[in-house]
Amino acid sequence: MIDADMERHATSYREQGFARIEGLVPPDLLRAMQQATDRLMETARGLDASDEVLELDPGHTRDVPRIRRIKKPHRADPVFFDFAKSKLVIDMVTKLVGPDIRLSHSKINTKAGDGGSPIEWHQDWAFAPHTNMDMCIAAIMLDDCGPENGPLMVVPGSHKGPLLEHHDEDGYFVGAIDIERDGIDLSKAVALTGPAGTISLHHPMAIHGSAPNRSGRMRRMMFMEFAAADAFPLFYGVEWDEYMSRMVAGQGGPAVRCAPVTIRQPFPTRAPGSIFESQSQLKSRYFAQAMS
Ligand SMILES: O=C(O)CCC(=O)C(=O)O
Nearest CA to 117 among 214, 217, 223? Predict the structure, then answer.
């Protein structure tokens, strides 16, 4: 990508909290990532319950597999970690979080074409607070993603804060905000759509969510969360060699940078696990209407 384009995307990210980049992933690399995703999904035919790699949707059977997430794809197939380290990703992420970068997390959310799980509105920072906020989340569309198949939607400007309440009235973490209570204007929410290979980047404070997929076509999206090497996670310990093996650019080490950021831990919880588990505890859902 030429510098002027990169600067334009970085400006959008800083001002709006997100950027959308089309046509960056070469077709052969996209195909390799799609094929690796197909292979991983195929293993669901041998499963009755979620395992280390696949999180299954309710209603899954071996004959009619339903998968909602591939966990840590960067560990499951080298094509994904190679992608995270590639110049085309690192050049852009460097502009947003600096030159020393760790891949802090990866997942592929797979939404089946006949109502695949929605994700209620939330801010990622509520799930994964770090010692500073030099982080960004890249979403790579592995399939074409139109308005009808549950694209990621982001509320422009919401990354400027505040961090909203993701706990329910009993004080339990439920991993979603209450749109009405917090008076969030969704009329300006932007649906990040595009052909397969489109990448979006969003800020950890940006309010985002996605509707169920009613398109009849699968929507698979890979999320890679990148963090400055000196942004340390605040609520889980690290296994040092594994942690450092996720450095994708520059230098990492034990130095920690603490910034004055607002933090609320995602505890206590009644449903440890993924965002799907947290949000299963919600009493009211914004996307319930869309699912009925
Ligand atoms: O899959 C999606 O549409 C959104 C995923 C997301 O925001 C998350 O898993 O935190």
Answer: 214
Q: How far is the CA of 171 from the centre of ligand 1 (A)?
A: 23
pLDDT of residue 288: 66
Q: Please identify, by atom number, the ligand 1 atom nearest to the C-alpha of residue 111.
A: 1
> Could you give the 3-state DSSP secondary structure of residue 38?
helix
pLDDT digits (tens, 9 = 90+) for 178-202: 999 999 999 999 999 999 999 999 9
The minimum-distance atom of ligand 1 relative to the CA of 210 is: 3
The pTM for the full model equals 0.96
Where is 199: in which H helix or E strand?
A: strand 199-202
39-82, pLDDT tens digit by residue?
Answer: 999 999 999 999 999 999 888 999 999 999 999 999 999 999 99
Buried b (16+ CB within 10 A) or exposed e, 30-68: bebbbebbeebbeebeebeebeebbbbbeebeeeebbbb
Strand pairing report for 67-71 and 208-210: unpaired
Q: Write the CA distances from 153 to 100, 182, 227, integer angstroms.
A: 29, 18, 22
- CA nearest ligand 1 atom 1, residue: 109
Would you tell me how many other CB atoms lie within 10 Å of the CB of residue 28?
8
Average pLDDT of 236-242? 91
The residue type of 211 is A
Q: Indicate whether 174 pLDDT > 50.
A: yes
Contact between residue 241 and residue 161 where contact means Cβ atoms under 8 Å apart: no
